[in-house]
């Protein structure tokens, strides 16, 4: 049977095996997909062992940057992201890297939630690996402006410089964000700790859409803030998770699964 896997540490709560099993069933593909907890100091060896028989893999925290380093060839989007979440074999049997996270976010926003990004003013909170992964696909939508705001301003500035050729992008600290935004995306790890970045007032208008790249059964702290500010909509990152998986499935199998029912099932199980 064609073998696929997701590598992470920890990996126990990964929803990827369930998602890919549902995709396979839906598209009539025969494959297996397992979760592998790689040792923190043994990711490369674990991947090498798997690929003696495996065809493809996803990579999650904390190995996405290491996955970028061990791949011999990478897609342009993985190159810009500086991280790899999808491993595949080329025609010579070598391990190559792709990154489907950014496309996952944009597909969820644009296709699932019908949020236009073209010509819009977009605020992105955070400047870590997760944010770097989404900036390329975000700028490809031709927003009017993307402002990257981060606790550590230098990291936001570095990202703005890196992506400057791809569109209108600027950087600042939280206290210096000004004006209203059409879309606000939270890519900080603050939600994980139940914290909210210290944002100034006046960023949210009545039409503003707020998107947290994190998800949970209850509204995230960021989405609670968005609601309290009077945002038009608050969306969490469960759809992004399913869409990045669908894009990886397409990379491996050449078939696009219907993500709607899968998302519905995951939401019901949260
Ligand atoms: P990830 O892969 O999730 O992006 P990361 O690369 O460690 O993880 O980046 C974490 C991001 O969340 C950073 O932008 C970080 O801000 P700093 O660059 O200043 O460290 C941000 N972050 C983490 N905890 C935060 C908090 N409590 N408030 C605001 N920002 C926070």
UniProtKB/TrEMBL annotation:
EC number: 1.1.1.25
Keyword Magnesium: no
Every SDH C-terminal domain range: 237-267
Gene3D superfamilies for this protein: Leucine Dehydrogenase, chain A, domain 1, NAD(P)-binding Rossmann-like Domain
CDD domains associated with the record: NAD_bind_Shikimate_DH
Residues reported to bind NADP(+): 76, 126-130, 150-155, 213, 237
Pfam families: SDH_C, Shikimate_DH, Shikimate_dh_N
Enzyme class, UniProt record, top EC level: oxidoreductase
A cellular component term, taken from the record's GO annotations: cytosol
Superkingdom as given in the UniProt entry: Bacteria
Function: Involved in the biosynthesis of the chorismate, which leads to the biosynthesis of aromatic amino acids. Catalyzes the reversible NADPH linked reduction of 3-dehydroshikimate (DHSA) to yield shikimate (SA).
Name of this chain's protein: Shikimate dehydrogenase (NADP(+))
